[in-house]
Each structure stands twice: as C-alpha cells, then as structure tokens.
Amino acid sequence: MEESKRATNFIEEFVEEYLSFGNTTIKTRFPPEPNGYLHIGHAKALAIDFGVAEKYGGVCNLRFDDTNPAKEDVEYVDAILEDIRWLGFAWDKLLFGSSYFEACYELAVKLIKKGVAYVDDLTREELRAYRGTLTEPGRNSPYRNRSVEENLDLFARMRAGEFPNGSRTLRAKIDMASPNINMRDPAMYRILHLPHHQTGDAWCIYPMYDFAHPIQDALEGITHSLCSLEYEAHRPLYDWVTEQCEFHPRPRQIEFARLNITDTVMSKRYLRRLVEEGHVQGWDDPRMPTLCAMRRRGYPAAAVRDFLARIGVAKADSIVDAGVLEHCVRENLNENAARAVIVTEPLKLVLTNWGEGSENIEMENHPFRPELGSRTLRFGRELWIEKSDFAAIPPPKYFRLKPEGEVRLKNAYIIKYQGHEVDENGEVTCVYATVDMASKSGGEGANRKVKGTIHWLSAADAAPCELRHFEPLMRRVNADMAEDDATDETVAPDFTDSLNPASLRVLSALCEPALLAAAPGSVVQGMRMAYYCKDRDSRADLPVLNRTVGLKDSFRVAL
Predict the structure, then answer these.
(1) Which of 94, 127, 210, 524 is deepest in the core (most CB within 10 A)?
(2) Structure pTM?
(3) Catalytic-labelled residue, pool 12, 33, 220, 386
(4) What burial class does residue 498 get, using C-beta atoms within 10 Å of its C-beta: 0-12 exposed, 13-18 middle, 19+ buried?
C-alpha cells in the first residue's frame, strides 16, 4: 500500500482490514439531522466521514436524517449544505432519510411477519415503567404476544391515520431482560400527525432513528458507518436490524470519541435555547460554536480543517483546549490576512514642526507576501495613536512614546516627545512631538534606529468603526452542556445563571478608510492588535469588525 494510504488511526485500520479481504469499494456517509445548525463537534464527524472515503478512493454520501418532522426544517437543510461546501468537502449523493420511508415500512412489515416486531398500546409512562433500569430487567408488554395478523392489521391502520399521536408504537421483539437497555424491545415506529418538509402529509407514522439508520446505510451500500461514541451501546441494535432485514453484505458501525472543547457549549438543546430565548443574535452569532458563526467571526475553513486534522481520531472522550483551535486560526491568518491600521483607544498626536500639507505613506499589505501589494495612508500634522502607546510616567522597559523619548511611526518618521495636555481628571488628551524629517522609512535617514515602533492614523482620514470583542458565552460549562446530544429530545434545564454577561464587548474605534469599502467577511490583521472580520451589520459609513482572534497564543500549543 502507498505510504500515504497507511492507517494513522483505528478507523483506518478497520478499513485496511476490510480491503485486505479483497474488497475494493469504501463508502461512508455523513447523516446530520436538519433540526439545527452544524457546530464544531459535527465538523469532526464530517471530516472523519469524508476524510476516510477520500483517503481510500471511496465516496461519501450526504444523507439528511429527517425522520422527526417535529423539529426539522428546510432552513437547516440549506444551512448544512452551505457549511459543508464552505469546509471544502464534496458529497457523492445528496439523499434524505425520508426517501426511504416506503422501504422502511415494507421492512417493518417483514419483521412483523417474521414474528420479531409487534404493535404496542402502552403509553409513554407505561413504557418507561416496563423498561426497567440499569440494574433491574424490564417486563414484557401485555401486547407482546399479539398474533402476526393482528399486528399487521394494526400497523396498516397506524399508517392510515386511524390512531392519535402516542397511542401506539411498533416495537422490535428482542429481550426485555437484556443488560443493554437499547435491546429491550426498542420502538421502531411512532405515530406523529405532522407534515414533513420533504413528504408533506403522506405519512403520519415515522421510523425511529435506530430502525431507519441501519436500513438506510444498508440500502446505500455503506461499508463503514462511522459515528460518535454515544452510539456504541446502540451497535447491537444496529446489527440486529440489518441481520433481521437480511441485508448482505451488511455495513459495519465503528464509533469514535466526540469532540469536546473547553468553555464551549456543544449540546444542541442549549444552543437552541440560546437562540430561541434571545441570548444571542442567532445561530451565526460569533460567540456560538456553530460553523456559520465561526465563518461570520472570520475563521478560515482551512484553519478549521487543520484543527480537525491535528486533534486526530481517538476511542476515548477527551477535552481539547479551545486555544488549539485559536492557534490554528491565528497561524492561518498570519500567513494570509492583509494588514490594516485600527486604533482602539485614540489619542491625538500633534506634530508641531509639520506644516499644513500632507503626504502619502506607502504601507505593505503583508510584510512577507509582496504579491498582495500595498496601499497608501495620508500623513499630516494631526494623527491618532493608541492611548497605550504613550505614558507620561512610563514603567520600566517601556519603548513607546514617553517624555524625552523617541519612537518611529510605522513606515513613516521618527518623532520625539515635546509635551502633552491633560484634562481635569488628569487623563492625557493630546501629545505633542517633533518630526525628524530626515528619518523617513525607505529614505536615506531610515537607518537611524529607535527601540519602539507604533501605528497611527491621519486625523483627516480616520474612519469611525465598531469593534466587537467576544468571550465565552458561559462562565462555566458543565458536562451536560458540553455533550453533543443530536438525538436527545429532552428539555435543557435552566442555565441562565451560567451566562457570561461580558461575553460581548462593543467598542468605538477608528480605522483606515480602506475598511469602509471592504467586503463583509474580509479578514484583516489590525496591526499590533488582533485579527478582525468585517461583519454583515456594517454600514457604508461604519464598518463593524468582529475580533476573530488575538495576535498571540495564550499558551504553547504542542501538537
């Protein structure tokens, strides 16, 4: 086998074992439920499903798991398609689980005829009581021994719409004493009189995930059904369904550890509540862990894929530091993002020996990529600098502007402190300096060195802008919030006391005029500050800039 094809994780080892038996086709699938937006946890599964197929010359289907019309919508379908395209993955076939409803129904009838499925009349509360616990076996339903004929009749009438929601279910007849609760006569169909976003009113009974999913995999010829670790206990049921339906060959389910990230809410229940209760702007609020939010915040798709490749594939759950993802973003943007001048806390600087005119100062768009070109900024008598770049009483080793000190204005001149003004509160309001006219960058006097260089904006050209700085949405994220519960229909408990009131900070700042015309989604490095992405909320006269990530790692990334 080519060196590039050699296994690097346990999933690939299973694939190579499969190929060693003479099999030639690898086929995987990514099966999101369209009841919300994809987040970074889903992206790990997505990258594994598509990546394994790509590495071994196979294909990956995109199949929407749309068996529950109560929570699904075409809005989510469209959003998922956009996210997958953004990440750069290409599916072989675009499919919907709802397209298999007739096939699932016919196979359910087959199982009834085989005597391994029955219609049950127990209520939800009774079903819970009969199911037993982790330490106590369940009890057989009093309807378990209905005849095949009666079950066929009732199931047909369920489909015809004769019965109300929740009044009957179709259950597999397996073993109510099984130590695996998932094997205690699990439900295969429920009654739900709701229109479906794909099939309309054609159905009022819908297959359960654990019944429909293995059937769909088998019908598509999926060789490896890759899923996260919470489905490990469901694997015996997956195998039971494909065996009882008499599929040959049968797909193999393989589980991997899901992705958990520090200080990050992964539970779809909580994310939905954040949106529906107005704690965030929407699914693409830049504080959210959704892919559309990361895109809006300015995360490059290549950086997300790099992160997913670095964390690898494991069998045991673990928590990845959020700094690893930020490191990947920062590394990508350092290489690719153009530079821009943004002054977050403006302080007026007056050059006392400069005349009334101005000149253009050339600025490179990227210090290491000359192919990205350059731009010009107007330089004149009155400028804006960062408030933190002047200290009337400087601390030790302070190399910015200070009394009796000199500093270079980036790509321009060396200036020397002359004086400053303060207001009634003692706050510095203006700094005065003189220009060394012979020190212009790129000129003959450019070789004169000073220890500090600061950025600046012309007071005549500086444009107002709005900066949005983000912190984690939650002050604390417990295990329940961190779990990706795509199939969990329970209601999230109250979590409002964990909300971080400082998760969004809005600042008024100044930026160079070029950002007025930049397209939404453009990412720049605010020199010496942070990376910023222009938001869709921007106006023609007011750029809104989302802080993507800071310039420095908060810790050393060892990957």
Answers:
(1) 524
(2) 0.91
(3) 33
(4) middle
